[in-house]
Specification:
This protein is mostly helical. 45% of the residues lie in helices and 4% in strands. The chain contains 5 helices and 2 strands, in the order H-E-H-H-H-E-H. It has helices spanning 2-16, 26-43, 57-60, 70-77, 88-92; strands spanning 21-22, 85-86. Helix 1 (2-16) packs across helix 2. The chain is globular and about 35 Å long.
């Protein structure tokens, strides 16, 4: 848990400066951060915990968190696919949150 708290603090600082905020559901955020840490230990990189990595860094480059889909997802839906990173407005009005569809092309997915 200590590792997750450190990751939370570090990412919170760096990502908020870029306009991306953690979901206010801290339990959900910590579950996702734990999964990112597990993926880093397993694969050697923080693959998105909501997608199936191929265990090939080059093939998975687009889903290394923060993934390449975060920016367009947050612009269009106010949240990334996992709901880890969100806009300030999304956090203030979660009830209006829309489902974020998968943007990753099927050919990039391992199965």
């Amino acid at each position: 848990m200590m590792e997750t708290e450190k990751l939370y603090q570090m990412l919170k600082k760096t990502q908020e400066a870029k306009g991306y905020f953690f979901n206010t559901d801290k339990e959900r955020v910590f579950e996702l951060l734990d999964a990112l840490t597990a993926n880093k230990n397993l694969y050697g990189y923080m693959a998105c915990p909501c997608r199936l990595p191929a265990n090939d860094r080059e093939q998975d480059r687009d889903i290394i968190c923060p993934c390449t889909y975060r920016e367009p997802d947050c612009k269009e839906y106010g949240s990334c696919y996992c709901n880890l990173y969100v806009t300030r407005e999304w956090n203030e009005n979660k009830d209006a949150a829309e489902y974020v569809p998968e943007r990753r092309p099927p050919e990039k997915q391992p199965f």
